[in-house]
């Protein structure tokens, strides 16, 4: 009987330790003391003459906050130097692979424009703010779309 109780206790201990091991495998994003980088992507989409184009879909593909893509639309901002802008993304939850600029309005926005695809590496680092333990980077793109 004593052997059976010892075996049950050992089995219970192995099970508890195993469960603790699995629970420690959760994905944790930003922990205290871990350097974090925040990104913001922004810019302008213009025609070949340099006029801003509204209504262009800006599709960021990759892994953004657990989603496969984020879609924005270009629009005019009063007093701003850009016509598209993302929120702030953390490196812990975001990896952007490509950014597509697609005209879905046709002639409504001044012409039927060709699509363009870039990567974040094609953008210009506009500014950097260091506020330990976090760094904030802003990337800008000026995209000129050609008519089809």
Give a verbal description of the structure.
The longest helix is centred in the N-terminal third of the chain and has 22 residues, at 2-23. The chain is 15% helix and 43% strand. It has one helix spanning 2-23, and strands at residues 36-46, 56-64, 67-73, 84-85, 89-90, 94-103, 116-118, 124-131, 134-144. It has 148 residues and is mostly beta strands. The chain has one domain: Immunoglobulin-like, CATH 2.60.40. Strands 1, 4, 5, 8 and 9 form a 5-stranded mixed sheet that branches. It has a 4-stranded antiparallel sheet with strand order 3-2-6-7, with no helix packed on it. It starts with a helix and ends with a strand.
Secondary structure blueprint with pairings:
Layout: H1 2-23, E1 36-46, E2 56-64, E3 67-73, E4 84-85, E5 89-90, E6 94-103, E7 116-118, E8 124-131, E9 134-144
Q: Tell me how many strands there are.
A: 9
How many separate domains make up the residues? 1
Q: If you average the pLDDT, what whole number results?
A: 77
- Computed CA radius of gyration, to the nearest angstrom: 24 Å
State which percent range the strand residues make up.
35-45%
Structural category is mainly beta
Classified by CATH, the class is: Mainly Beta
